[in-house]
Write a structure and sequence with these properties.
The protein has about 250 residues and is mainly beta. The chain contains 3 helices and 15 strands. Strands 1, 3, 4, 6, 11, 12, 13 and 15 form an 8-stranded antiparallel β-sheet that branches. The protein has a 7-stranded antiparallel β-sheet with strand order 2-5-14-7-8-9-10. The longest helix is centred in the first third of the chain and has 18 residues. Bound molecules: 2-acetamido-2-deoxy-beta-D-glucopyranose.
């Protein structure tokens, strides 16, 4: 009885311990990523002069070029960030340059989940599900549901006004489900600003999604133009992580 009890207690402790798993972490360095993507004049560099925590951060830049017709990614990628059925937390710090021009408003993506569907369908290739971005100084996110051949995108306004030149913290929790058994939450600087239950959070096709952070100046490509007068854009990132508990992803806790 005593042995059985302590065995059960031991198993319970083990279960609790193994449930908290940090699956990925990066302290603002260019090492350890599945891949690093820079398009056209974009750059991803490890810096020590502007950091969110510790001694290093990642600086992502993009430069508009009216004679270039391609996309503008400056991102770091980590594979296998989710599959259907996973319930995980993702976190990072970011800082827009202090002179970030937000008027006139145009969208700049900061983080995204994306999968390569080219092997299983001709409807799409690399398809992002949830993205996190600013338009002007407002923060948005979204859910992508349905199927790759019939995508439904639901934009979510966070109500957050982002202050350029300051480090900000984002933590996302998602239960990734293609039916309405999922949920999605987003914390900004420690305050929960999005909380949706009983929602689909991804498409029906189950392939592993990457988690990416970085500056992706997607509006320059999508809108075939740059608005405003700031063709050189800089965003810093630091303390990028994901895992099974809030503490695994929260930059303040690991
Ligand atoms: C939703 O899908 C999951 C598989 O990811 C399944 O286990 C669950 O029973 C489904 N729920 C509903 C309400 O259909």
């Amino acid at each position: 009885m005593g042995f059985k009890h302590s065995l059960l207690t031991g198993l319970a402790v083990l279960t609790t311990i193994t449930q908290a798993v940090q699956l990925f972490s990066n302290t603002g360095t260019t090492s350890g990523w599945s891949s690093i993507q820079t398009e056209h004049n974009g750059q991803v560099t490890q810096v020590t002069n502007v950091v969110g925590e510790g001694t290093t951060a990642l600086k992502m830049t993009q430069t508009y070029d009216s004679s270039y017709t391609g996309r503008y990614h400056s991102e770091v990628h980590v594979d296998n960030a989710y599959s259907i059925g996973d319930q995980r937390f993702y976190g990072f710090l970011f800082r827009l340059s202090s002179d970030w021009q937000s008027d006139p408003a145009q969208g700049y993506n900061l983080a995204q989940f994306i999968g390569d569907f080219s092997a299983i369908t001709t409807c799409d290739g690399w398809m992002p599900s949830t993205m996190i971005w600013v338009v002007g100084n407002q923060l948005y996110t979204r859910l992508k549901t349905g199927s790759v051949c019939s995508q439904t995108t639901t934009q979510i306004s966070t109500g957050v006004t982002v202050t350029p030149g300051e480090w900000h913290k984002i933590v996302v929790q998602a239960s990734w489900q293609s039916n309405t058994s999922g949920f999605f939450k987003l914390w900004y600087d420690g305050t929960k600003v999005v909380e949706q239950y009983n929602v689909a959070t991804t498409v029906a096709e189950d392939i592993p999604f990457q988690f990416r952070v970085g500056l992706y100046a997607n509006s320059w490509y999508d809108e075939h133009q740059m608005k405003g007068t700031q063709p050189f854009r800089q965003v810093w990132f630091d303390e990028i992580a994901f895992g099974t508990t809030f503490a695994d992803a929260d930059p303040s806790q690991w």
